[in-house]
Amino acid sequence: MRACVTADIEQFSDAITKYGCFRECSQSPDDYHALRILLDIFCEEDIPSTLFVLGAYAESNPSILDLSGENGHEIASHGYTHLDLRSLSSAALREELSRCHHLFTARGFRAPYYGFNTLMVEYLEPYFVYDSSQIPVRSASRMDRFLNVYMLSKSLMEIPISTVGIIPLTSMILRMCPLSLAKMIALYVLKRDGYMVINFHPWEFSCVLPDVPIPSYVTKNTGPAFTKKVKAYLRFLRGLEVDFVTMEQIYELYR
Ligand SMILES: [Zn+2]
Question: CA-CA distance, 68 to 53, in Å (whole number)?
Fold first, then answer.
């Protein structure tokens, strides 16, 4: 069995772009410190990860790429601006992907907010060999309901976030569910699929997040409690003797 632990490397202000409220807030979390916590956990638990780095964040803080590349993590792309790509014109989408490509090359892509639609495939194909933007239960079309790895086109593979029923293995599951339930779900997915894909964000490890008008579930149970839970969860996976793999390795296994 294999576990693919991924993270979207972005600032808290990027994550809440769609709520349009961050400028109202003068307080800013220590995103760099939060990233350090996440990377230290992966290092302590000896977990190779795939890190989907936001282009604008890497451009304004070039050390992010060096940090993210430590310990053999795979660097993939999370777009440039963290806008919902489904809302962009063709020209803007092309520009978004091209700007990232000029900053760093990556084989994989994940759209902000898991905001994917099939119209994006032709724009992703020139740059990437896999996409990991889909949460099957959220997709409207029947084709996109496939739970496992499948080909979006001849050259672009989809590696969706693992999902059970209506529950995707995003980090929210760990923040909102008891650890025992999160473990049961992981075990179920590993037995069902032979692998699992889960995703985290650095800002979830931050001690203090600004009080901004966004849904409470976005920031609920973040900070030290979350850090402790993630460590316990990853140790549980290690105890199952799963192989921790990057997304690139999943791509190579299934192509
Ligand atoms: Zn994101």
Answer: 8
